[in-house]
Amino acid sequence: MTIDFLIVGQGLAGSLLAWELIQQGYHVIIIDNGNENASQVAAGLINPVTGLRFVKSADVDILLPTAKHCYSRLAEFFQQEFYSEKPMLRIFQSEQELSYGLKRLTNPDYQAYLGDIVKGRNAIVNLATPFGFLEQKQTGYLLTRPLLNCLKEFFIANDCYWQADFDYRDVQLKPCLRWQAIYPKQIIFCEGYHATQNPWFSWLPFRPVKGEILTLEHTSQLPDNILNDGHWLIPLNSRHIRIGATFDRDNLNTQITAQGKAELLTALSQVAPALTQLSLLNHQANIRPCTDDRQPFIGYHPLHRQLAIFNGFGAKGSLQIPWYSQRFIDALLNKGPLPSSIERLYATHYTA
Question: Considering 12, 72, 150, 276, which has the largest number of Cβ atoms within 10 A of its Cβ?
Answer without folding.
Answer: 12
